[in-house]
Amino acid sequence: MSAPKPAKSAPERIVLEGRFVRLEPLDGKHARDIFEISTMPGGAERYRWLFSTAPETLAEVEARIAATTWGEDRYVAVVDQASGKAVGQQGWMRIRPAHGSIEIGGVYWGLPMARTPLATEALYLFARHVFDDLGYRRFEWKCNNRNEPSKAAARRFGFQYEGLFRQDMIIKGESRDTAWFSMIDSEWPALRAEYERWLSPDNFDADGVQKSRLATRS
Predict the structure, then answer these.
(1) Domain CATH for 158
(2) What pairing do the DSSP bridges indicate for beta strands 138-144 and 101-109?
(3) What would the pLDDT profile of 81-100 be if each residue is shown by its tens digit?
(4) What is the pTM of this model?
(5) Which segments within the chain are labelled E, that is strand?
């Protein structure tokens, strides 16, 4: 067995282009779009399981983005290719190139992304970049164990459940048990093929409705 290799580097400030979304470094120009999706009906509810709370003002979003540095954690805006508007954000976290391990976290996918291919492609672009471009061995997903939609999403995307960190954190005054999921490089070729099959134009009808579901589970 050959020795494991570290990843090439941490993610750089580049744009990742897809058919449905574009991922670009989070910047002040995205503040108004993020504020709008956060304050639309139902938008604030999507902050329930995040470390942050729903913003109340545009200035608050601007301040949060200004405080976000491209360093330990690295955030990108999820831009809808059709509208040109930011409809969510997500981040690279626990970036450990020496170990070939990285996490997707800080995920806020706004309501305009719900029941569309946008979230799936946003995840796919992250995974493809870490495995194919940067040579990572491990891609992680973590969430509050009470966050059933997040756990379901992780499984749908092809992450494997690894276990529970009990009483891992105190978040917003509540104890958090953290569920851990991952996918690894040996699993990625089959997952990549399934993502690309599902995201193909052939898999959507004239109204943009999927013809078949994403089948990432063995």
Answers:
(1) 3.40.630.30
(2) parallel
(3) 999 999 999 999 999 999 99
(4) 0.95
(5) 16-17, 21-25, 74-80, 86-96, 101-109, 138-144, 160-171, 174-184
